[in-house]
Specification:
globular; 162 residues; binds coenzyme A; 3-stranded parallel beta sheet; two-stranded parallel sheet
Length: 162
Amino acid sequence: MKIIYPGSFDPVTKGHMDIIKRISEKFDEVIVACLVNSEKQTMFSLEERVSILNEEIENYKITNVEVKAFEGLLVDFAASVGCTMIARGLRAISDYEYEWQIAHINSSLNNDLETIFLVANSKYSYISSSIVKEIIRYDGDISNFVSENVELRIKKKLKIIQ
Ligand code: COA
């Protein structure tokens, strides 16, 4: 069975990778759907986010994961790849309301779609991509939250290093 893990991944964190790794162990195929979110001003372009995700997946040596970019409705993307399962991580109770709404919207648009929630690893339950970007802007240590590769990519983007 295959499952979609959607998100903006700007950039991918260790929290996201923890979810990807866990679903890759339970499902035959994982499609990481990297979103063009018109409401979010991203640090990395869609191409960059997809390539960073691919680098991470290679570094984690996960073989049954494919990264795809998508624009538009998640239900349409799911139909286009023939998938009826969506995975989302729940970091805290505050995520639940938003996730509950999205899950209901998606299932009302396509009754076959099922959303499953994974409880985020407690080590990463308080981080987000925006927080990581904010910490690094003030020269804080983000090594617990993103890989070395992602840290380098952010530093290059912010021209902290060449
Ligand atoms: N570890 C670390 N951070 C995590 C995380 C985890 N396990 N899970 C979520 N986050 C963070 C992300 O880093 C992100 O942080 P940021 O806002 O600082 O960038 C934040 O939580 C939530 O972002 P993300 O998971 O990337 O979701 P999103 O809100 O950008 O998008 C979609 C959610 C993709 C499911 C939804 O927007 C969607 O389906 N869009 C398509 C349009 C559509 O179909 N709309 C109708 C349904 S709403």
